[in-house]
Design brief:
Blueprint (H helix, E strand, L loop, with lengths): L17 H9 L4 E5 L2 E4 H17 L7 E5 L4 H12 L3 E4 L6 H10 L2 E7 L3 H9 L10 E4 L18 E2 H7 L15 E6 L9 E5 H14 L7 E3 L7 H4 L1 H7 L3 E3 L6 H11 L3 E4 L1 H9 L10 E6 L5 H9 L2 E9 L4 E5 L11 H8 L4 E2 L3 E7 L15 E7 L5 E2 L3 H7 E2 L2 E10 L5 E6 L3 E4 L2 E4 H8 L5 E11 L3 E10 L9 H9 L10 E4 L13 H10 L10 H9 L1
Parallel strand pairs: 1-11, 3-4, 3-5, 5-6, 6-7, 10-11, 10-12, 12-13, 13-14, 26-27
Antiparallel strand pairs: 1-2, 8-9, 9-19, 14-15, 15-16, 17-18, 18-21, 20-21, 21-22, 23-24, 25-26
Pfam families: AMP-binding (PF00501), AMP-binding_C (PF13193)
Family: Belongs to the ATP-dependent AMP-binding enzyme family.
Protein name: 4-coumarate--CoA ligase
Length: about 575
Amino acid sequence: MEELKPHLANSLPLTPLGLLERSATVFGDCPSIVYNDTTYTWSQTYRRCLQLASSISSDGIARGQVVSVVAPNIPAIYELHFAVPFAGAILNTINTRLDARTISVQLQHGDSKLVFVDHQSRSLVLEAVSLFPPNTKRPPLVLITEDDNGDDYQATVDSKFCCTYEDMVRRGDPEFKWIRPLSEWDPIVLNYTSGTTSSPKGVVHCHRGIYNMVNETLIDWSVPKQPVYLWTLPMFHGNGWAFTWGMAAVGGTNVCLRRFDAAIMYDLIKKHGVTHMCGAPVVLNMLSCSPDNQPLEKPVHILTAGAPPPATVLFKTEALGFVVSHGFGMTESAGLVASCAWKLKWNVLPATDRARLKARQGVRMGGLTEVDVVDPKTGVSVKRDGSTLGEIVMRGGTIMLGYLKDPVTTRECLKDGWFYTGDVAVMHPDGYLEIKDRSKDVIISGGENVSSVEVESVLYTNPAVNEAAVVARPDEYWGETPCAFVSLKAALTTKPTEKEIIGYCRGKMPHYMAPKTVVFMEELPKTSTGKIQKFLLRGIAKSMGSLSCRSTTINGIQSKLNT
């Protein structure tokens, strides 16, 4: 066959941005966003995003520059997922639960040129900006309000903000020609992992990767046209696992809510006929344990990821009428890249067996070329016996471009044609993988990643602490919470209490990262080379049981170590 070469007609860059343009045509008069008493259609959302992009561009934000947003699941953060890249810029969604110091570091590291700030995060972001070094240019701030009264509101806006969000929408051009990427490898988002604040890890994804993630997630979860999607997954978590763009692809209704509350969720499910939702296992626990829970009138599909949901939580959630699917992903993979694809023959198994199977991370999704569990030293696949440990590696069209300004760490995890995740797992004989540990000692608490190293670094700043190690402890509500093992300095006349240590940490870091349990020991267990034996501490924390049923005594813990 003669050699045929790519042509401009068939080689335009892949991007998820055109999905909104299409929805404005196909689903133009259908609801796109519902929030309290506000409802937009897809044609209105498209126009608002164009106007906002026009204002961002006219304010001097250039192609490839970073625009940040600190906001919960409200219409503004959804619109910014299109408006910012429409202007050729890179979107950076920031976790609203972070402290001012961490936000300040992320804004500086990403060199953010503009920051959209929800009114409830006003003080937090102002403090973050105040922490910039002297003579450092601070980005302009745009205030997202819920009481914008029109053209006269600009006169009363806080002087520390350049304008309001709605003011930018109003003055924008609805005929703005959105800026297409020059290459599908152009960055579209910058997302920060929960690494140490002194060395933030900014994950950069391109248009191509996000486009692939949107398609594979919709296909794998079998999302139909025009679903009603309840935003119980924060959009600042990996861009809501790409469902921000995915809902535009299928013309879905985005039901937004500012605060995660079981009673509110049940009310919105009934009021709007919700069909789909996502969230960490803590959301399942919230729904199943709420006094407001009640059997659903119609099934609601819920996709969960993070720490495997406990069997009891799965039982309770599915008994209410939720159809639970479980997957695995990370910031570096742009969303879920493995799912526990369910087989019909498993439906006849006992409930305990079904829960055990559903808790596995599963098999690769279509957007990935390969997923494997390998010996990290040799790169050779481990035995598919469900017991041999190895590291999860993957490659395919949704893997990040790399870490911003961090070539060393990028090279360490992107090597030999694979992305090394740092997650320790086994491969079962049927080809389904299951995570057994995290080599990076990351604790997943309520869907938030907590770095044990960062918590330990704070503990070591306490003048009373001699040694510290942090591991995950089971928690009936949050899935896992940080558990600190601490030895105190010998010369102390007054020893701090558990409550005082926890309070000390809460004063220096986001509250969700602070230990919920502190165990005092005379000496932490170590290897012959002096390295703390965290695997022993993990076993002890696990044996203590869930935080809400704390029964193990400190003497009992010490006796375990002695044996």
